[in-house]
Amino acid sequence: MSGFGVEVDAAVAAVREDVAGLHAELVRYGLVVWTAGNVSGRVPGADLFVIKPSGVPYDELSADRMIVCDLDGVVVPGTAGSERSPSSDTAAHAYVYRNLPEVGGVVHTHSAYAVAWAARGEAIPCVTTGMADEFGGPIPVGPFAVIGDDSIGRGIVETLRGHRSRAVLMRNHGPFTIGVTARDAVKAAVLTEDVARTVHLARQGGEPLPIPPDVIDRLYERYQHVYGQATDDRRSAEREG
Ligand SMILES: O=C(CO)[C@@H](O)[C@@H](O)COP(=O)(O)O
């Protein structure tokens, strides 16, 4: 018995399944080594989110091992998985959920090319149409912050609030991405690494050509509202508004 009620219990169960399964996508797309990356998802209709336990191998991340937290990042006692320590980035994820109500999922990885840009403290310029589609401009750099308090979360929110990009490169650390759902945030993490690698490769042969800002705007608008299917997470969230 969780004490949440039937509807919230069902929502928690669905987010547990979703978040557990999405960690396999981080592995599939080569975004993580060992246990260095995490996915969380907000529980619709409740001030709760679900995140993985800290330092547990990805092939052991079943739904019942996911951890339910409140929006202060405190583990809900007595729930499945609560005997374990949550991800060391739980406070950062919680800060994002508290301060950006439209966010339904948060992802952090140490994907190699994105971390290389973060280590230099250099924003990734928007020089491909695919990047304009997903990010609508450059991927910005967030401040240097270390695990232990709200500072990573603050840096993510300060950098991404009002920004089109769903990704921030936290300086000397790595990418954090947000989405309307956990899956949407995983997609942003996959595409962040893809553009980090592509723009890095492009620069080996010279300076990439810029895309005019009005063209970036048009590509971004089309991708958000026309690309894919009306049932896609982002377009559904927009309709539900
Ligand atoms: O960046 C760090 C630690 O520096 C963490 O995000 C990473 O190792 C993953 O930690 P968790 O297994 O989620 O606790």
Automatic annotation (TrEMBL):
Catalytic activities: L-ribulose 5-phosphate = D-xylulose 5-phosphate
Transcription regulation is among the record's keywords: no
Keyword field: Metal-binding, Zinc
InterPro entries found in the cross-reference section: Aldolase_class_II_sugar_metab, Aldolase_II/adducin_N, Aldolase_II/adducin_N_sf
Class II aldolase/adducin N-terminal domain span: 17-200
Family, per entry: Belongs to the aldolase class II family. AraD/FucA subfamily.
The protein's name: L-ribulose-5-phosphate 4-epimerase
